């Protein structure tokens, strides 16, 4: 593909031992149909890629596995990218993808390596100067690894926005799992810093590790403020772990006791300073292991325990309750 070329693949079947599409120059590729299979890297150095239909399959028996390599702008809007590794090497859905957008369709990345191997697995990877963009309004991103290496959904240093769809990251061994990992880094000689943030208004993040630590969101930067005003974040260890200021819900006149929903099989919230205005927090050990810095005026915390979780949400202070043995009831049923 040349620098000004537009390539469209609308059907058929392409099978390659290396690349389905290869470019050493910027170009644009749209795949709207067909099933295309590669035993190498499917799409190589194409500047702008759109998957609006069909499926691109990468199934590599050995070596490092990459679905798309150095494609700066990738959009999945109805198509599928399926990447499978059957070796003990790192596995990437997208490697060095500066901007990733998914509105519908699927990105599925699977590393079938040995459980004692430490190879890493990434849904989207970006590891160059500056920061990346992850935007999801729908569709599914699913990342699964059987090795003990780290398993990631969204890339490091991402400006992460989510309003729908699902991001699922699972490690069946002892690997550490991150749905979204935010940090800061110097990106120029002047050591100016770029801080990643997240803004979640809907959708679902679900992370699990069989015998390791899992984070729905891991925010390791000391500046900037991130928000979650809707959707669900669930993890087998920590829903959200942060060194930052995290706003949960909205500080307004409307109080929701159900959304957003943060669930951690250890803690819903870990570390950090949290401004908790709406929603519900659930944790097996406790709902939080961090500081609640701000709440909505005129509300009070309500915490209850069941066989699964400690649960916390806000109640309007002036509601009427029947209190029996220090347990409050706002309705009576026979």
What do you see in this structure?
With 334 residues, this protein is mostly beta strands. It has strands at residues 6-9, 15-16, 21-22, 28-31, 35-38, 43-44, 48-51, 55-60, 65-69, 73-85, 91-95, 99-111, 121-125, 132-136, 140-145, 151-152, 158-171, 177-186, 193-195, 198-209, 214-220, 225-228, 232-235, 238-242, 245-248, 261-264, 267-276, 280-283, 286-294, 299-305, 310-316, 322-324, 327-329. It contains no helices and 33 strands. It has a 31-stranded mixed β-sheet that branches.
Present the secondary structure layout.
Layout: E1 6-9, E2 15-16, E3 21-22, E4 28-31, E5 35-38, E6 43-44, E7 48-51, E8 55-60, E9 65-69, E10 73-85, E11 91-95, E12 99-111, E13 121-125, E14 132-136, E15 140-145, E16 151-152, E17 158-171, E18 177-186, E19 193-195, E20 198-209, E21 214-220, E22 225-228, E23 232-235, E24 238-242, E25 245-248, E26 261-264, E27 267-276, E28 280-283, E29 286-294, E30 299-305, E31 310-316, E32 322-324, E33 327-329
Parallel strand pairs: 1-4, 2-5, 3-6, 4-7, 5-8, 6-9, 7-10, 8-10, 9-11, 10-12, 11-13, 12-14, 12-15, 13-16, 14-17, 15-17, 16-18, 17-20, 18-21, 20-22, 20-23, 21-24, 22-25, 23-26, 24-27, 25-27, 26-28, 27-29
Antiparallel strand pairs: 18-19, 28-31, 30-31, 32-33
């Amino acid at each position: 593909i040349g620098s000004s070329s537009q390539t469209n693949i609308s059907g058929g079947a392409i099978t390659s031992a290396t690349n389905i599409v290869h470019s050493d120059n910027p170009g644009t590729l749209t795949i709207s149909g067909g099933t295309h299979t590669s035993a190498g890297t499917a799409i190589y150095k194409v500047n702008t890629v759109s998957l609006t239909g069909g499926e691109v399959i990468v199934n590599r028996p050995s070596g490092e596995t990459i679905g798309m390599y150095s494609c700066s702008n990738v959009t999945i809007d109805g198509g599928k990218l399926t990447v499978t590794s059957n070796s003990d090497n790192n596995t990437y859905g997208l490697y060095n993808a500066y901007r990733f957008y998914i509105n519908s369709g699927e990105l599925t990345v699977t590393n079938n390596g040995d459980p004692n191997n430490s190879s890493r697995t990434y849904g989207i990877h970006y590891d160059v100067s500056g920061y990346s963009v992850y935007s999801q309004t729908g569709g599914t991103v699913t990342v699964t690894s059987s090795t003990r290496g780290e398993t990631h959904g969204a890339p490091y240093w991402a400006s992460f926005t989510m309003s729908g769809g699902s991001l699922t990251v699972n490690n069946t061994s002892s690997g550490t799992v991150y749905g979204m990992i935010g940090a800061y880094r110097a990106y120029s000689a002047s050591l100016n810093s770029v801080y990643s943030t997240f803004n979640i208004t809907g959708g679902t993040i679900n992370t699990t590790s069989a015998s390791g630590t899992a984070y729905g969101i891991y925010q390791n930067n000391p500046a900037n403020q991130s928000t979650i005003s809707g959707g669900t974040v669930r993890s087998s260890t920590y829903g959200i772990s942060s060194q930052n200021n995290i706003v949960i819900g909205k500080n307004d006149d409307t109080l929701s006791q159900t959304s957003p929903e943060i669930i951690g099989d250890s803690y819903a919230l870990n570390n950090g300073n949290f401004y908790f205005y709406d929603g519900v927090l659930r944790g097996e050990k406790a709902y939080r292991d961090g500081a609640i810095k701000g709440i909505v005026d005129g509300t009070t915390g309500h915490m209850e325990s069941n066989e699964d979780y400690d649960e916390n949400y806000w109640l309007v202070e002036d509601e009427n309750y029947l209190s029996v043995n220090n347990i409050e009831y706002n309705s009576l049923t026979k």
